[in-house]
Structures are given as structure tokens and as C-alpha cells.
């Protein structure tokens, strides 16, 4: 299929199996899915295949802190267990996966490039050439290119051309969004997967994946931001005119709320996590001073737990949540895409389930906020339909959109896919043929 999603006819698209792995700070989740070509393409625009999940495994994450692998052995163990569970459920073995990347100080940059057409019609080769020229500029820094995506083309002085193939002009230009990350955390994540005898097919930035899963067509088209609040990191992505135009990540997540509570209430992390889930809220309620919550202090073997007013807890939660949202608001305004987002913000990720969070986000971001759950995937068990699984589901959707990416950048970016040793995996071959 050609580089523009959805343009191949159904006969050129094949069914296949796809495996994705979401390595988070709180959980590692592996999904195996069957992709079948869409007959009518009406389901969701830009989706060329129907996705049916046939295997899923998730584990408490180990050895990962704020999205960065900090202990290879423990991370490998958690990855192995979740992939094992998914393989057993799907009844097949997996050799390569699509993985998401949160760490590495993700940075979005815009580049433009122009090539000379000399008055003839633009074809695939010209598009490859202009995309290659745009991607080359991003490689000057000591960083790794994760995505290089065309945002829009121009022919001579006309901007906003969506698909220049077959059009005539003298100069073909492209505006590109290039997302880069630090090389070391990417290498270490890849290493922990390779040690489980698996190879990395492609790395996808978490904000991109979450946005693909949680945003609906109109939001993608009109412009919206997707904020994915995980355990150790919060990522933000901006989509406009159906394209991913900006991505960012900060190393603050739900775990920081738990940590603040454990410190402030002098209780264990497990107890603080339980309190956060059961009673935590980012909204002060009228009865908070009267409501008492019982807490088991650290190192106190006495049977009598402490009783504290819920308002004490709400204050701790609120301080951290407000700080996180203010940081995101500033990042969004600085990105220059504040206007593209308009009033639409979608919150997703495990930590977005905190009570009162949408209200707090509305107040601080000054925009409409809804909680987004992963859309457009069949066969998910009830437990995996929540916001915590958006990134994993987004990775299943990604290959259908990957046809938008400039494939030349793969070669340029030097993202050496270890473990492929020259022989293409069945999976990679299928991905290349089908999309």
C-alpha cells in the first residue's frame, strides 16, 4: 500500500497478527490482535483494518521509573511474564513487537523542505525525496528520530495540499513534524525486550499512540489535545486536521500523588495507593472536614489506626494535581498549538481516573475536558476497556496510520532494530506489505 493511509484497494491489504507492548511505570501490558481489512472503510476514517484482540497479558511493572528502564533484570522479568500470558491466551508465539516510548525528553520540532519538480507531475518518488529531505534536518542533534510525519504539502505558493500525487508544479514543499528522543533510554528499553528474546519492530511515542486510541474523528480533524496521565509520566499530544502535530512528556504521574500522600500522612506506599483509589479526590467536598478516613501509620503495630479528616488528604492530592495541570497548560501554550486545540482536551491513562480530575482540568486548562477510553477495537476484556489501556490500544491502531510516515526516515534515523539480523521477521514483512 502506498504511503497515504487508506488509498490501497482492499485486495492489496491482507490480514495478519500484530503484537504490541506497553511498558509503563505501573504496568506492562502486551496485546496480540488479528487485523482484518475493512471492507467499507466506514468504521473510523483512516483505519484500513478491523482489530480483534485475541490475547492480552498484563503485569505489575518492575524496574521502570518515570518511563525509564532503571533495572534491566526486573524489567525483563515483567515483560516476559506479560508477553507469556498474551501468547498463551492467543495460542501463538511472538517474535517481534511494536513498543511505545515515553522517556527520553521527547521533543517536537517542525521542519520544512522543498524539492524542484520542474513542472512535471508529482509522483511517489518525489514525495519520498521531499520527505527524506525534511527528515535529514532533524538528525543534526545527538538524538534519535522516533517519528517524522508530513503535516501538509505545498505546490509552488499553494499551501495546504493534502495529497500532491499527480499534481503539476515547479516546487514541491512539505511541512514536517519530527519527534525526537534521547538515544540512551530508547536503547535500554530495546535491550530489556531483546533480553526476552523478542525484537522491536517499531517504537512509537506514547502521546501519539494514546491520541490515536482516545480521540474521535471530529477531534482529530478540528484539533484537540490528548493528555495521558500514567503512573510515572504524563504525556500530551496535539492533533490537528487529522495529523499528529505536537508531542511532549513530563516525568510526573499518578505515583507522585501516592508518594505525596505517603509522606504527608506518614503511611506506607501501599496504604497510600489504596487511600488514593478509594477516597482520593482533586475536588474539595463540603463534608470533607467531617468525613474521617482511617490510616495505619508506618511502623506502628498498634491496632488503632489514626483517624484524619478527608480534607487533609484532598489538600495533598489537589496540590500535586494542580501543579501537574499547570505545567501541562504552560507547555501547551508554549508549544504554539494552543489555538489548534481550541476548547477540546481529552484525558486518558490510568491516573486520569482520579475523582474530580476532569473538573480540576477544566478549571486550570480553561477548556472542555472529557475522559477518553480506547475506541474502535473488538475483543477487549471488560477490565482492559478503561483509560489505562489507551496507549496499548493506540499501538494496535498505529500501523494503519504509519503509512503516513516517511519511510525513508527509518533508514536515516539509524534506529538499528537489533535482533533482525538481516532476515526479515514474518511480522515485519507483513507490516511492510499490508500498509
From TrEMBL:
Cell division protein that is involved in the assembly of the Z ring. May serve as a membrane anchor for the Z ring. Belongs to the FtsA/MreB family. Keywords: Cell cycle, Cell division, Cell membrane, Membrane. The keyword Membrane applies. CDD domains: ASKHA_NBD_FtsA (cd24048). One of its GO terms (biological process) is FtsZ-dependent cytokinesis. This is Cell division protein FtsA. It comes from the Bacteria.
Amino acid at each position: 500500500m502506498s504511503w497515504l493511509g487508506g488509498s490501497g484497494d482492499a485486495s492489496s491489504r491482507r490480514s495478519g497478527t500484530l503484537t504490541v507492548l506497553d511498558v509503563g511505570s505501573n504496568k506492562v501490558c502486551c496485546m496480540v490482535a488479528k487485523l482484518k481489512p475493512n471492507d467499507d472503510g466506514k468504521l473510523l476514517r483512516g483505519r484500513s483494518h478491523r482489530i480483534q484482540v485475541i490475547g492480552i497479558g498484563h503485569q505489575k511493572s518492575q524496574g521502570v521509573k518515570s518511563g525509564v528502564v532503571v533495572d534491566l533484570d526486573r524489567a525483563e522479568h515483567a515483560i516476559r511474564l506479560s508477553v507469556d500470558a498474551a501468547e498463551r491466551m492467543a495460542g501463538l508465539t511472538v517474535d517481534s513487537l511494536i513498543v511505545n516510548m515515553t522517556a527520553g525528553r521527547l521533543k517536537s520540532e517542525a521542519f520544512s523542505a522543498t524539492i524542484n519538480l520542474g513542472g512535471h507531475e508529482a509522483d511517489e518518488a518525489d514525495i519520498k525525496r521531499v520527505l527524506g529531505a525534511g527528515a535529514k534536518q532533524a538528525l543534526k542533534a545527538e538524538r534519535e528520530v522516533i517519528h517524522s510525519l508530513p503535516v501538509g504539502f505545498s505546490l509552488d505558493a499553494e499551501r495546504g495540499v493534502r495529497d500532491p500525487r499527480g499534481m503539476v508544479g515547479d516546487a514541491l514543499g512539505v511541512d514536517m513534524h519530527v519527534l525526537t528522543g534521547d538515544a540512551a533510554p530508547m536503547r535500554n528499553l530495546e535491550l530489556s525486550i531483546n533480553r526476552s528474546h523478542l525484537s522491536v519492530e517499531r517504537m512509537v511515542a506514547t502521546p501519539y499512540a494514546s491520541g490515536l486510541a482516545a480521540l474521535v474523528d471530529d477531534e482529530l480533524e478540528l484539533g484537540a489535545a490528548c493528555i495521558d496521565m500514567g503512573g510515572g509520566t504524563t504525556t500530551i499530544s496535539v492533533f490537528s486536521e487529522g495529523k499528529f502535530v505536537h508531542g511532549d512528556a513530563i516525568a510526573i504521574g499518578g505515583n507522585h500523588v501516592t508518594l505525596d500522600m505517603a509522606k504527608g500522612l506518614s503511611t506506607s506506599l501501599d496504604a497510600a495507593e489504596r487511600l488514593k483509589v478509594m477516597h482520593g479526590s482533586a475536588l474539595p467536598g463540603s463534608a470533607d472536614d467531617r468525613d474521617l478516613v482511617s490510616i495505619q501509620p508506618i511502623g506502628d503495630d498498634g491496632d488503632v489506626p489514626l483517624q484524619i479528616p478527608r480534607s487533609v488528604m484532598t489538600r495533598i492530592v489537589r496540590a500535586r494535581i494542580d501543579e501537574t495541570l499547570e505545567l501541562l497548560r504552560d507547555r501547551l501554550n508554549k508549544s504554539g498549538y494552543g489555538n489548534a486545540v481550541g476548547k477540546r482536551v481529552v484525558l486518558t491513562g490510568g491516573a486520569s481516573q482520579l475523582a474530580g480530575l476532569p473538573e480540576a482540568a477544566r478549571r486550570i486548562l480553561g477548556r472542555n475536558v472529557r475522559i477518553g477510553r480506547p475506541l474502535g477495537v473488538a475483543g477487549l476484556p471488560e477490565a482492559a476497556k478503561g483509560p489505562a489501556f489507551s496507549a496499548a490500544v493506540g499501538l494496535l491502531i498505529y500501523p494503519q496510520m504509519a503509512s503516513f510516515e516517511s519511510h525513508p526516515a527509518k533508514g536515516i534515523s539509524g534506529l538499528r532494530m537489533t535482533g533482525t539480523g538481516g532476515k526479515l521477521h514474518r511480522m515485519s514483512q507483513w507490516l511492510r506489505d499490508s500498509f
